[in-house]
């Protein structure tokens, strides 16, 4: 097929292919979806980047100014399409790679149509947020309500007049709760296991993402203290509404759990106004109710599980020693995980994953181009 194959035509895959091309290395990009940016096409309608345009673009071609400070989902898709065209990237859509293993010529790739391809170098950019995950809640199979993962949520229309429980106060869960409250759901609850770190998206025009970039070097203890003090200053005390203060500092959670803070795009206002009701974590289901960790229960029509994603890499590789217990590659972002095998897009930082993908694409392209020449 090609000496260098990139898996996934998302931001990370496109960026690394473009960076390779700039260094004289042609790569083939294999994409399972019908076009580039498949993940972004499927995300909810109201989504705008929570990272600023200037810090979210890929190397060699910035996101157009006209897309505004907070880039809309559809504009990001347009940008990624334009990016692939601009650098004339060889993207083969509708091509799912099912399995990768060492082969005679480096790596052997089994495609969904049953064919086998080989490549000397494989760069995996299939997305940190790859496979929607729902916890194995007891009783779920007999509960009669409707359950969807946040990845399948588009807008509030199908939930008008319904009682909805959103599970998980991450960025998706909180924004979906706001969307449902604005879009006519009768009751919107937000189930919270661990109190989130909430940050204002901007303070006096200054984006939270920039704090992450500029202050990220601070020692953990100091960063944690600054983040906690900022939250106290900027946000109302939400404890009386059912959202506690985080027990573990922000940078500690980032390090130990790859956690990014919740950027407030309406959830604080909605909680204070009683339009979104925080409740305890979900423990399980019975034949009519969702059972919560504080011993209470609720009877929603619909549960939206904003409960995260797995990387899907365990299924892609037969070698389990490539990934840690959470499915994240042990070596990623620059150095080869094995000779001729790279992973990009698996580092969660306060500067944003798009910015990080741009940084890593340069590093990986530099290393691969040296090896290929
Ligand atoms: C709701 C939401 C909002 C976000 N907002 C931001 C934000 O504001 N700023 C930010 O920096 N980050 C944001 N992110 C994180 C975001 O996921 C990344 O920034 C970005 O999409 C990561 O790009 P990627 O190329 O690594 O992965 P993806 O965009 O997921 O691309 C992976 C590609 O690989 C393809 N693929 C997967 N498996 C295979 C296979 N087996 N064979 C072939 N192709 C395959 C997929 O179809 C996809 O096109 C957000 C994420 C979510 C879920």
Describe this structure in words.
The structure is a single chain. By secondary structure, the chain is an alpha/beta fold. It is 28% helix and 22% strand. The protein is built from ten helices and 22 strands. The chain has helices spanning 11-22, 38-41, 73-86, 171-182, 208-215, 220-234, 250-257, 267-272, 313-316, 353-372; strands at 4-7, 27-30, 90-92, 97-103, 106-111, 116-119, 121-124, 131-132, 146-149, 163-167, 187-192, 198-200, 202-203, 206-207, 262-264, 277-280, 282-285, 290-292, 297-298, 302-305, 309-310, 341-343. The chain has a five-stranded parallel β-sheet with strand order 3-2-1-7-22, covered by helices on one side. A five-stranded parallel β-sheet has the order 9-20-10-11-16, with helices on one face. Helix 1 (11-22) runs parallel beside helix 10. Flavin-adenine dinucleotide is lined by residues 7-13, 30-33, 38-39, 43, 47, 49-51, 56, 96-97, 125-127, 129-130, 172, 345, 352-354, 357.
User: How does the helix and strand content classify structurally?
Assistant: alpha/beta
Helix content: 25-40%
Largest sheet: 5 strands, parallel
Mean pLDDT: 96
**How many extended strands?**
22
Q: Given the C-alpha coordinates, what overall shape results? A: globular
Our Rg estimate from Cα atoms comes to 21 Å
Distance between the termini: 18 Å
pLDDT below 50 for ≥5 consecutive residues: which ranges?
none
Strand content range: 15-25%
Give the bound compounds: flavin-adenine dinucleotide
Q: List the total number of helices.
A: 10
């Amino acid at each position: 097929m090609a000496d260098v194959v990139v898996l996934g035509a998302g931001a990370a895959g496109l960026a690394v292919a473009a960076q390779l091309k700039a260094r004289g290395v042609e790569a083939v990009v294999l994409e399972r979806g019908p076009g580039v940016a498949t993940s972004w096409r499927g995300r909810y309608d109201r989504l705008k980047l929570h990272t600023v345009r200037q810090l979210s673009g890929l190397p060699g071609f910035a996101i157009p100014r006209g897309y505004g400070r907070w880039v809309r989902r559809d504009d990001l898709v347009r940008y990624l399409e334009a990016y692939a065209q601009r650098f004339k990237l060889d993207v083969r859509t509708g091509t799912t790679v099912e399995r990768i293993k060492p082969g005679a010529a480096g790596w052997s790739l089994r495609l969904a149509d049953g064919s086998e391809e080989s490549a000397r170098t494989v760069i995996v950019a299939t997305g940190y947020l790859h496979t929607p995950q729902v916890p194995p809640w007891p009783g779920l199979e007999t509960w009669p309500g409707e359950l969807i993962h946040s990845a399948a949520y588009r807008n509030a229309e199908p939930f008008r007049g319904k009682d909805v429980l959103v599970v998980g106060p991450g960025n998706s869960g909180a924004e979906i709760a706001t969307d449902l409250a604005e879009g006519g759901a009768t009751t919107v609850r937000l189930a919270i296991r661990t109190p989130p770190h909430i940050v204002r998206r901007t303070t006096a025009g200054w984006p939270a993402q920039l704090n992450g970039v500029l202050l990220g070097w601070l020692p953990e203890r100091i960063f944690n203290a600054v983040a906690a003090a900022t939250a106290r200053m900027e946000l109302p005390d939400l404890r009386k509404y059912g959202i506690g203060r985080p027990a573990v500092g922000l940078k500690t959670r980032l390090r130990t759990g790859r956690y990014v803070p919740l950027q407030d795009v309406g959830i604080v206002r909605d909680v204070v106004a009683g339009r979104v009701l925080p409740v305890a974590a979900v423990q399980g289901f019975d034949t009519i109710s969702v059972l919560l960790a504080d011993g209470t229960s609720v009877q929603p029509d619909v549960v939206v599980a904003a409960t995260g994603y797995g990387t899907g890499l365990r299924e892609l590789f037969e070698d389990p020693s490539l990934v840690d217990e959470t499915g994240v590659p042990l070596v990623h972002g620059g150095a080869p995980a094995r000779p001729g095998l790279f992973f990009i897009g698996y580092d969660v930082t306060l500067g944003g994953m798009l910015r990080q993908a741009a940084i890593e694409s340069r590093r990986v392209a530099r290393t691969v181009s040296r090896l290929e020449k």
